[in-house]
Amino acid sequence: MTVTPSELFDLALSRHRQPWNWTLHLAGLCGLGLTLLLHSPLLLAASLIVFGAGFFQWPEPPGLETRWLRLTLRAVEWEKDWIAYPWSMRKWAWFLLTLFTVFVTVWALWTRELATLGILAGFAYLAKVVRENKANGIDP
Predict the structure, then answer these.
(1) In whole numbers, what is the pLDDT of the chain averaged over residues?
(2) Which of 25, 48, 86, 132 has the greatest number of C-beta atoms within 10 Å?
(3) How confident is the model at residue 1, as a pLDDT?
(4) 25 by DSSP, 3-state: which?
(5) Around Cβ 57, how many Cβ atoms within 10 Å?
(6) Which region holds residue 112: left if phi is over 0, alpha if psi is between -120 and 50, else beta?
(7) pTM, two decimal places
(8) Is 63 left (phi over 0), alpha (psi -120 to 50) or beta?
(9) Using CA atoms, how far apart are residues 90 and 97, in angstroms rounded to an integer?
(10) Neighbours of 11 (CB within 10 A)
């Protein structure tokens, strides 16, 4: 049976959108962040194995309703909506800002630049506060 790259990509994307698989991918990315910070080849291998395990078919236990499951389902829906949103200036700006933040975070983790990591954490907390204020009707 021949599998085309587009079919393989569709299969990987459909499995990524399952809660358990999304959780494994998130754990693999967190492990990659620790790998960059600690410069550990063993941790890199473990992170890649966990990330790769996220592409297998994992059965969901019936009747499982937890906060983590609801969070992963919301994250998957947000990801689907973002992918479906047309490429406008706003989406390009969001994409470029995210890409820049990822590059700065990778650099800060690799060089162990704690001041930059602290600034990034501060900006992330500030963004959370602004989002909560907007949700509560407080105009900044």
Answers:
(1) 89
(2) 25
(3) 62
(4) helix
(5) 9
(6) left
(7) 0.80
(8) left
(9) 11
(10) 13
Identify residue 32 by its one-letter amino acid code: L
The answer, yes or no, to whether residue 140 has pLDDT greater than 70, is no
Helix 19-38 and helix 41-53, axial crossing angle in degrees, nearest 10: 170
For residue 51, what are the contacts with CB-CB under 8 A and spacing of at least 6?
Answer: 24, 25, 27, 28, 29, 31, 32
Secondary structure tally for the chain: helices H, strands E:
6, 0
Give, rounded to a whole angstrom, the gap between the first and last alpha carbons of the chain: 58
The mean pLDDT of 66-92, rounded to a whole number, is: 90
Positive/negative CA dihedral, 27, 29, 32, 38:
negative
Identity of the amino acid at 1:
M
106-128 as b/e: b if 16+ CB within 10 A: eebbeeeeeeebeebeeeeeeee
- Residue 4, Ramachandran bin (φ over 0: left; ψ between -120 and 50: alpha; else beta): beta
Q: Please state the separation of Cα 54 from the chain's center in Å.
A: 13
Q: What tens digit of pLDDT does each residue of 104-125 get? A: 999 999 999 999 999 999 999 9
What is the maximal distance between C-alpha atoms in the chain? 58
